[in-house]
């Protein structure tokens, strides 16, 4: 034993703990389970508010045993810890019963039914009564339905504040605040704004950590069913690069399994008329963005930021509007696919474009927000008609009785918009957009392919990575940066603002890991983004397995330019596939009067 | 004289219900418990460690209901047992008090009360149910008798008071845990709003406060006090910049007629604070200031490396935003008298004159007119002019400063910045005895100040009318006396000479002579301060109130601002009612204080050590050359982290009284 460790007794066993180690951490190291609810170790979050993880301790020099929260109480020398005494179990059980007392318990209607950490903990502590529930206690907290992307149902909030921590510390968006007191306490947006008008960027990472159904996407599965069962409508489905590697778990397949074929099969069974691949549009984006970037480099305009990620676009418009001129004008793959599917595709296939409805399946909540951007509609026609998150897609399949596990795989059959290159496939993970773009820029600069296709110098997993790439030819050296997660993104934005960042091209993905861990993915209980690397490996495997590894060599992309768009960044391409951004920073100033009206405290002077 | 009929405190049961009343050893003197306000006996007292019943007929159920209702109203709602326990028990006690059937039986109430006490996160949830559980354990028969009677409890009068050690320690009684909580909640504007309810100079206080709150902080028993001042500065800096909180006249609910004018004499912290509160009450306020700028000692006494002038100015500007006026270069005794103020139509006067004259050291050959001799306050005035660019002062050679308070620290650090080669600080006692902030002493030493502890001047040496040095003598500590204090005495034969070009006596200040004359009708204390009643700050002349350093002698910014608030309440009462009212909250504090009821001497549960954040500071070698601010605001991230260290040591105290408690300004 050193000065740095202490010795204690844990359920009768002698254990050694690090100085200041919590009882919970020590117990976990020794394989002793303690029920927890608000705590989430993966994001270093232990607010000790739920008070479920109680254990009994006896400390030297103290007569009686005490109950303490294991998540924030340190192990001390000579301490005796008991995790399963009757007193402990009863305190835990009563705590969960009290948690339910002001928790909206319409479980059967809840998106988390059967997948809820609160339900799990109720089972864990052996809850068998529910004496205190009163629905009226939930009514003081609101349901915010203002956002096109997400619903915040505070009647189901258990005040764990995981969402506040991920938004504040993880993403540094810091859009959330604690509101109200007592049973009316909940989580809201700064300055009492609605989610829609707030500084929230709808990245959805809060949804990924919420233990209950308090946070979730806006469910639009019914809209899709309406489309599917309307014979006048031609349904066009697309799914994002990351969906195929992050969806199998819902049906019991190992994390990271590539279920592309099964998704295509399932969509056909649902009654989809046309199944397209967002990967195809990713290849188109590479063509447009590369051409745009070369033009900007020639004009000495640097840096250029990628524009695929709608939460990043929101972040820039809300928090860094001064950087908007540096954003690529190329629309995201989702929007490019929608636009092409309503112009080029009907022309080729002889369909009335007015009958087409494009449905996206995305690992992303912000894509729902992107869909309704006014500048992405023309004459009242949206490019995308509905966006389903991966979670809703799972719900849709279940509603239609489709089990992905037993679903026969199928293949894409659309001759215009479903082929993809390996470059398009890796769009779903951090560094993927950059790597895809470099493969094409090299070809443009040198008239031949990059000899080594896979760029390992871009493939790290740090939040911010930089590289210097010899593209050669007329372009020469390109300095690039890649950020995933908004914390490193904010640091980089600050550096760009301060003029200390020396980059030509910057890839941003708002969610840590990129789309494979986007806020629309399946939820993980008691874990934050546990499958990031498995999904990423699967995407790289898809890249390796494709016959064509570069966007410009995708035959359907070549046909698109030959038959329709003429060339990348042509006038027509510019009209259809490029957009603009607006300053949407939020006025965040209050008067003292407003603040005083809102303050609750016992020493009110005025 | 109150006698306890029954009750329990700290686990000791007192039960004299059968008559054999005897004095309790727990409360040898119940002097303070007789009446709450004159003619209004205290019937019962409830606190964080039990309750005392002085009147057998008190309804326990109703008294406990009050306590729980207060806790429910104040529960932050984050931790489960407090959020639900206060609500569920509250509903049942309310039903019982009405004589109705309650949703919970007494055993269930005990179960929930115990859950609250044993598993709540903070002091509020852990201490509120203690009286309830004690009552249900030891005096259940009383409660059962009340329930059995089936009649509603008669109305009981009283008040409930929530506080914490840091709140009680603060002269301004700022609700510290609340403002820290608002930071944790992500609402720094609300946090600032809590502070602004007490005084306008939050950013100033966040820079220079002496932090009684941090001395009282129970986190000291774990690792270090919460950085309450650092957090105050963090939120106060939201007062500037693009998202600054805005003051405007619409804060004022109703305006008094224009003839309701009040004169505030002296634009220092006490005067600013008083004017601020009077303006919010709707009065028309003029501040008469002898200098050409507002701020008083905060402007001239605190160097800009600790308090930048623009920070102070943005806070004194609040007075203008609220419609107040500054009349500069108006010195009392020279430009006006109290009589002339009343003649000009002011209805009431607040004297916040400060202590602007340095106290001599009283050593041999002290000549305040000699070249090179400065008082602390006189020197800081030169520093002020130097920075303002109106009159430059260059020092050279050795500078000696005598004193151990914050003014002395300001002098030594400023002297360095003005070119002194070496700066010596003489203090007659030890480092531990120094009244200055210890961070200040360390900062001064880091910048190169040479501190001589246990050293006292004995004689000043002059040449050609100029100070050229002084004889000093070493001191030593005497044995501890009966009151536990150690004095100092000079060591015979330890005299030695120190050369210096400037000698600064920074041992104290007093009210400037001649500002008040007997014809003003203001009684003075024997030591030259204005005499003001502690309870309402009234002077001997009706309508004239006084507060701040001119009443207390040199004291702290926070004391001055507290006096300003108190005076504003008194002036409002005086002008509206002709007399000042009873302050229930002050009376409650007095009871807590007299009986040492707010225990803050132990932390019951193990707490993880997490040391406090510190201001980012510049390198001492750089900062000793500059008058710009040396500490910068902490980051959002550090603020969130620091705010999480607060343990929220809230406790609720209630009294039940015979009569309604008069609603003084709360």
UniProtKB/TrEMBL annotation, chain A:
Signal peptide segment: none
Keyword 4Fe-4S: yes
2Fe-2S ferredoxin-type domain: residues covered: 4-87
Domain 4Fe-4S His(Cys)3-ligated-type: 87-126
Pfam short name (any one): Fer2_4
Keywords, comma-separated and alphabetical: 4Fe-4S, Iron, Iron-sulfur, Metal-binding, Repeat
Residues of the 4Fe-4S ferredoxin-type domain: 148-170, 191-220
Keyword set includes Chaperone: no
Entry's Gene Ontology molecular function annotations: 4 iron, 4 sulfur cluster binding; ferredoxin hydrogenase activity; iron ion binding
Family: Belongs to the complex I 75 kDa subunit family.
NCBIfam families, alphabetized: FeFe_hydrog_A
Record-given protein name: Hydrogenases, Fe-only
Highest classification ranks of the organism: Bacteria, Pseudomonadati, Pseudomonadota, Alphaproteobacteria, Rhodospirillales
UniProtKB/TrEMBL annotation, chain B:
Listed Gene3D superfamilies: Alpha-helical ferredoxin, FAD/NAD(P)-binding domain
InterPro entries linked: DPD_II (IPR028261), FAD/NAD-bd_sf (IPR036188), FAD/NAD-binding_dom (IPR023753), Helical_ferredxn (IPR009051), Nuop51_4Fe4S-bd (IPR019575), Nuop51_4Fe4S-bd_sf (IPR037207)
Record-linked SUPFAM superfamilies: alpha-helical ferredoxin (SSF46548), Nqo1C-terminal domain-like (SSF140490), Nucleotide-binding domain (SSF51971)
Pfam families registered for this protein in UniProt: Fer4_20, NADH_4Fe-4S, Pyr_redox_2
Single GO MF annotation: 4 iron, 4 sulfur cluster binding
Domain (NADH-ubiquinone oxidoreductase 51kDa subunit iron-sulphur binding): residue spans on this chain: 61-106
Listed name of the protein: FAD-dependent pyridine nucleotide-disulphide oxidoreductase
Organism: Magnetospirillum molischianum DSM 120
């Amino acid at each position: 034993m050193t000065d740095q460790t202490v010795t204690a007794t844990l359920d009768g066993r002698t254990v050694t703990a690090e100085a200041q180690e919590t009882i919970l951490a020590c117990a976990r190291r020794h394989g002793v389970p303690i029920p927890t609810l608000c705590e989430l170790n993966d994001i270093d979050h232990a607010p000790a508010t739920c008070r479920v993880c109680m254990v009994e301790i006896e400390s030297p020099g103290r007569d009686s045993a005490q109950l303490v929260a294991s998540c924030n109480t340190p192990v001390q020398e000579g301490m005796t810890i008991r995790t399963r005494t009757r007193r402990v179990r009863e305190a835990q059980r009563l705590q969960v019963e009290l948690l339910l007392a002001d928790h909206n318990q319409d479980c059967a209607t809840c998106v988390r039914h059967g997948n809820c950490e609160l339900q799990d903990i109720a089972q864990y502590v052996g809850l068998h009564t529910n004496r205190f529930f009163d629905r009226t206690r939930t009514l003081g907290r609101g349901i915010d339905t203002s956002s096109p992307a997400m619903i915040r149902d505070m009647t189901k909030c258990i005040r764990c504040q995981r969402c506040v921590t991920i938004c504040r510390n993880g993403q540094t968006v810091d859009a959330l605040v604690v509101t109200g007191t007592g049973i009316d306490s909940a989580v809201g947006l700064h300055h009492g704004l609605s989610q829609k008008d707030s500084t929230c960027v709808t990245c959805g990472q809060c949804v990924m950590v919420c233990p209950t159904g308090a946070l979730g996407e806006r469910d639009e599965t019914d809209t899709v069913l309406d489309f599917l069962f309307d014979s006048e409508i031609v349904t066009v489905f697309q799914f994002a690069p990351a969906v195929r590697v992050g969806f199998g778990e819902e049906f019991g397949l190992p994390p990271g399994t590539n279920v592309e074929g099964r998704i295509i099969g399932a969509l056909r069974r649902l009654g989809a008329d046309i199944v397209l691949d967002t990967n195809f549009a990713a290849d188109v984006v590479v063509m447009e963005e590369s051409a745009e970037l070369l033009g900007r480099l020639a004009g000495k305009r640097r840096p250029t930021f990628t524009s695929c990620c709608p939460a990043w676009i929101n972040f820039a418009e809300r928090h860094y509007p001064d950087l908007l001129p540096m954003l690529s004008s190329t629309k995201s793959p989702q929007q490019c696919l929608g636009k092409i599917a309503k112009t080029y595709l009907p022309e080729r296939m002889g369909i009335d474009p007015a009958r087409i409805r494009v449905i996206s399946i995305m690992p992303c909540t912000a894509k729902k927000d992107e869909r309704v951007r006014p500048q992405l509609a023309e004459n009242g026609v949206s490019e995308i008609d509905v966006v389903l998150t991966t979670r809703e897609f799972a719900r849709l399949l279940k509603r239609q009785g489709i089990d992905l596990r037993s679903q026969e795989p199928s293949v894409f059959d659309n001759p215009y918009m479903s082929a993809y290159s390996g470059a398009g496939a890796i769009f779903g993970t951090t560094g993927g957009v950059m790597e895809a773009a470099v493969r094409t820029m090299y070809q443009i600069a040198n008239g031949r392919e990059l000899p080594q296709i896979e760029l390992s110098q871009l493939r790290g997993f740090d939040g911010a990575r930089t590289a210097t790439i010899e593209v050669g030819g007329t372009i020469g050296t390109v300095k690039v940066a890649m950020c995933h997660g908004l914390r490193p993104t904010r640091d980089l934005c600050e550096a760009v603002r301060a003029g200390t960042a020396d980059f030509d091209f910057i890839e941003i993905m708002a969610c840590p890991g990129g789309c494979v861990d986007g806020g629309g993915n399946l939820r993980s209980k008691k874990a934050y983004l546990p499958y990031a690397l498995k999904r990423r490996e699967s995407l790289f495997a898809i890249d390796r397995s494709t016959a064509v590894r570069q966007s410009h060599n995708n035959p359907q992309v070549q046909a698109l330019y030959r038959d329709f768009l003429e060339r990348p960044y042509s006038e027509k391409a510019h009209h259809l596939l490029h957009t603009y951004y607006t300053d949407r920073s939020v006025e965040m100033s209050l008067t003292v009067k407003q603040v005083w009206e809102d303050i609750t405290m016992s020493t009110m002077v005025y | 004289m109150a006698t306890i009929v029954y009750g329990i405190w700290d686990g000791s049961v007192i039960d004299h219900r059968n008559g054999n009343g005897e004095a309790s050893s727990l409360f040898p003197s119940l002097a303070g418990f007789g009446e709450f306000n004159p003619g209004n006996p205290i019937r019962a007292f409830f606190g964080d460690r039990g309750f005392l019943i002085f009147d057998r007929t008190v309804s326990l159920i109703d008294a406990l209901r009050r306590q729980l209702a207060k806790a429910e109203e104040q529960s932050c709602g984050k931790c489960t047992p407090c959020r639900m326990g206060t609500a569920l028990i509250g509903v049942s006690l309310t039903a019982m008090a009405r004589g109705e059937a309650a949703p919970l039986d007494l055993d269930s109430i005990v179960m929930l009360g115990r859950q609250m006490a044993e598993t709540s996160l903070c002091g509020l949830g852990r201490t509120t149910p203690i009286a309830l559980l004690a009552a249900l354990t030891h005096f259940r028969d009383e409660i059962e008798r009340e329930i059995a009677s089936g009649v509603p409890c008669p109305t009981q009068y009283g008040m409930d008071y929530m506080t914490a050690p840091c709140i009680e320690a603060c002269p301004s009684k700022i609700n510290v845990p609340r403002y820290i909580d608002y930071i944790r909640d992500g609402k720094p504007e609300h946090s600032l709003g809590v502070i602004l309810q007490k005084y306008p100079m939050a950013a100033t206080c966040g820079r220079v406060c002496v932090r009684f709150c941090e001395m009282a902080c129970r986190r000291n028993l774990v690792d270090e006090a919460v950085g309450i001042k650092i957090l105050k500065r963090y939120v106060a800096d939201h007062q500037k910049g693009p998202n600054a909180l805005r003051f405007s006249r619409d804060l004022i609910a109703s305006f008094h007629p224009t003839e309701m004018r009040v004169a505030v004499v002296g634009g220092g912290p006490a005067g600013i604070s008083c004017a601020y509160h009077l303006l919010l009450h709707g009065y028309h306020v003029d501040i008469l200031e002898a200098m050409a700028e507002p701020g008083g000692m905060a402007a001239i006494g605190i160097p800009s490396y600790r308090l930048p002038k623009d920070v102070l100015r943005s806070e004194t500007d609040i007075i203008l935003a609220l419609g107040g006026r500054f009349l500069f270069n108006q010195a009392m005794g020279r430009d006006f008298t109290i009589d002339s103020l009343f003649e000009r139509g002011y209805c009431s006067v607040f004297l916040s004159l400060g202590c602007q004259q340095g106290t001599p050291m009283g050593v041999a050959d002290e000549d305040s007119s000699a070249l090179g001799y400065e008082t602390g306050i006189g020197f800081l005035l030169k520093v002020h002019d130097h920075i303002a660019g109106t009159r430059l002062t260059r020092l050279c050679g050795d500078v000696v400063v005598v004193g151990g308070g914050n003014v002395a620290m300001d002098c030594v650090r400023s002297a360095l910045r003005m070119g002194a080669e070496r700066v010596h600080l003489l203090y007659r006692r030890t480092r531990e005895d120094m009244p200055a902030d210890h961070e200040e002493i360390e900062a001064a030493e880091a910048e190169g100040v040479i501190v001589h502890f246990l050293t006292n001047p004995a004689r000043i040496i002059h040449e050609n009318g100029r100070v050229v040095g002084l004889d000093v003598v070493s001191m030593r500590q005497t044995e501890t006396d009966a009151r536990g204090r150690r004095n100092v005495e000079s060591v015979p034969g330890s005299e030695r000479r120190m050369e210096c070009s400037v000698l600064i006596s920074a041992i104290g200040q007093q009210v400037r002579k001649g500002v008040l004359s007997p014809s003003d009708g203001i009684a003075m204390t024997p030591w030259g301060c204005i005499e003001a009643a502690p309870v309402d700050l009234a002077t001997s002349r009706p309508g004239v109130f006084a507060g701040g350093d001119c009443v207390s002698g040199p004291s702290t910014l926070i004391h001055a601002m507290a006096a300003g608030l108190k005076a504003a309440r008194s002036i409002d009462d005086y002008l509206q009612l002709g007399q000042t009212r009873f302050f229930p909250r002050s009376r409650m504090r007095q009871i807590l204080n007299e009986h040492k009821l707010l225990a803050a001497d132990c932390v019951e549960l193990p707490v993880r050590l997490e040391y406090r954040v510190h201001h980012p500071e510049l390198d001492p070698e750089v900062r000793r050359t500059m008058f710009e601010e040396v500490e910068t605001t902490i980051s959002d991230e550090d603020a969130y982290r620091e705010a999480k260290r607060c343990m929220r040591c809230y406790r609720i105290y209630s009294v039940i009284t015979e009569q309604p408690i008069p609603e003084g300004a709360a």
